[in-house]
Amino acid sequence: MGWGGPGGGPMGGFGGARASAAAGLPFAGIPSELAAKADDILATEPDHPDPAVAFHHAMADADRAPFTLRSFLGAHRAALVGALVLVVVETLAQQAGPLLTQRGIDDGIVPGDVAVLVAVGVAYLVSVLVSMGASAVRVRFTGRLGERLTYELRLRVFAHLQRLSLDFYTDEKAGRIMTRMTSDIDALTQLFQDGLVNLAVQFGTLVIITVVLVSMSPTLALLTIAVVVPVLGVMTVWFRRASDRGFVTVRDRIADVLADLSESLSGIRVITAHNRRRHNVVAHDNVLGAHLDANRTTARISAIYGPGTEAVGIVGQALILLIGGSMVQAGTLSIGELTAFVLYLTAFFAPIQQLVQLYTTYQQGQAAVTKLRDLLGTTPSVAEAPDAEPLPPIEGAVDLEHVTFGYGDHEAVLRDVSLHIDAGETFALVGPTGAGKSTIAKLVTRFYDPDAGAVRIDGHDLRHVTVTSLRSQLGVVPQEPFLFHGTIRDNLAFAAPDATDDDLLAACAAVGLDELVGRLPDGLDAPVHERGASLSSGERQLLALARALLARPRVLVLDEATSNLDLRSEATIERALDAVRQGRTAIVIAHRLATAQRADRIAVVEEGGISEIGTHAELVAAGGTYADLYATWTRHTTGGTD
Which terminal Cβ of the chain has fewer Cβ within 10 Å, N or C? Predict the structure, then answer.
């Protein structure tokens, strides 16, 4: 579905929002009393052209390398160096205060030199202004950089999800996939915008203060390093190990929460029908309990480490005052130097406290990196070959040559199946549930690759042609059609974005959808809610069929496409298909034999192979499996049995 005109956003900005209100969508956009002001603001906005996004089915070499923070940030090395320069300037300006205080006490207050005090005061003011300016520029600069990094990461993850094969989505829960795009990237967003920069600020502060402390009083600095730093080091090592495990567990539990939520929302009708709402609340409570326990563990770790390091800092300050005071009395240290040393020591422990909090952010980000690395490291099982050639315009002859296939590690569904479908032929597949009919369709459309053998169209092995050139010549109507939130127009034109209104209306007429479109007040602009919930199952199937026909496929795959239609709608579809199938190859998977018997040939699929092939009349005369199926179907449709 396309985007609107200038102004950005779906449905063409504020005008689109008003149009969506007229279409009866749940959210109408800008309230009417604010529309005029909104339009005034919009008039001053620059145009936002569509982004230039390049998508390739094959993974780029850069995407094959394991995802790490270092590799991801490496492309923005120059911007990061600029941010680091701003951090250094900001840190130096911030830490000038105690040193100026020492000069003011020793060279101004003690000797009573007012000029020195004024000079120190001016210098202090300048350092504050420089710090404020550098901080403001740094926050703006790093904020924009962080948003850019987040944008690139979201686009990279989404593009990779588009690239992955169907088996990935079969094996992985939708909620866990959503976690990668939401909470995991949110954790990295916080790290990009605040964590890494603040980490540099606090680490730089720590280094500068250490250098100043050593130069100011090596004795007191050595005492600090010998007594305080080892204790803090031991506590930090413990915190790192404990938090590493804790935050990975937290990310896993977040994924469990979202997975359970997604499944419950998707199955709300079944839950309601079977009166399982209370049971689901209890089950979700258990999932949330595990999430709560994981967060409590990390909170407990932080609660021990934070106050513990603060207590160590207070003890260190007490020792410095005691020993430093003795040195002042002995004349080996000035009162200004002791004051500056204590101020710097306070500032020395402040970054450590900040680093504790930042390490928590860093650990959350690292846990997210681990999850994203696993996702981005997943390679498509149906990959486009590096030397793949575009598939030329096809006639539509389909061949399965000694094909064997099974889903994952399960037993093979198809075993040594060979099949030829002539170009322009309507070919039906019938047989018991689970025999492999839909699997054959999935192999022809290259949703999966065979474990052995080959699938060819017009003699071209599907593994050696580009995915785009193949899919652009195929049309698929699944048993359970999926419709997107938007309008009828959006859903019809999904596979043919350049289709005109006349094309759309012709496709609707071909499948018998024109009556529905005609009686809707908004016609093609009538809203379609998420998953097509505003339409009946038959209407959804008709719309999906029209969408497939609009793409003008050379090979049309109908996976029980009439299963959700009443007899009248089925008859309409059958008449439409008779016209549409002319000159095209049609592969029909059908339980209703009324659909199968209209095919040029029929294959019976059972026990992982093809047991019978022929016309309807030939198979009935043969007296085999198809004849039994036809006899049973005839008795049911004529009312011979219940």
Answer: C
Closest to 88 (Cα-Cα) out of 202, 214, 190 = 202
Given CATH 1.20.1560.10, say whether it is the number of domain 61-376.
yes
**What does the CA dihedral 126, 132, 138, 143 come to, rounded to 10 degrees?**
-170
Confirm or reject CATH 3.40.50.300 for domain 479-552, answering yes or no: yes
What is the full DSSP assignment across 48-105? -PPP-----SSPPHHHHSPP-HHHHHHTTHHHHHHHHHHHHHHHHHHTHHHHHHHHII
Q: What share of the chain is helix, strand, coil (3-state, %, to 5)?
A: 65, 10, 25
| Paired tokens of 250 | 């937290």
Look at strands 452-457 and 460-461 and give their pairing.
Answer: antiparallel
Query: How far lies 299's CA from each of 15, 111, 196, 311, 356, in Å?
Result: 48, 52, 21, 18, 12
Question: Residue 29: how many CB atoms within 10 A of its CB?
Answer: 20
7: left (phi over 0), alpha (psi -120 to 50) or beta: left
| Beta strands 585-589; 426-430: pairing state | parallel
At 231, phi and psi to the nearest 5? -65, -45
How far is residue 451 CA from its own chain's centroid? 30
pTM of the entire predicted model: 0.70
Sheet strands (E) in 370-413: 398-405
Structure letter (DSSP) for residue 131: H
What's the CA angle centered on 578, arms 573 and 583, to 5 degrees? 130
Q: Which residues pair with 601 in a beta bridge?
A: 427
* Every domain of the chain and the residues it spans: 1-50, 61-376, 479-552
With bands split at pLDDT 50, 70 and 90, how would you rate the model's confidence at 14? very low
Classify residue 289 by burial, with Cβ atoms within 10 Å: 0-12, 13-18, 19+. exposed
Q: At 97, list the tokens.
A: 């205060």
Decide: residue 607, CB within 10 A, 0-12 exposed, 13-18 middle, 19+ buried. Answer: exposed
Helix (H, G, I), strand (E, B) or coil at 626: helix
Is 274:322 a contact under the CB 8 Å cutoff?
no
pLDDT in tens, 51-101: 666 677 766 666 677 888 788 887 788 888 888 788 788 878 877 878 788
pLDDT tens digits for 561-580?
666 566 666 676 676 666 66
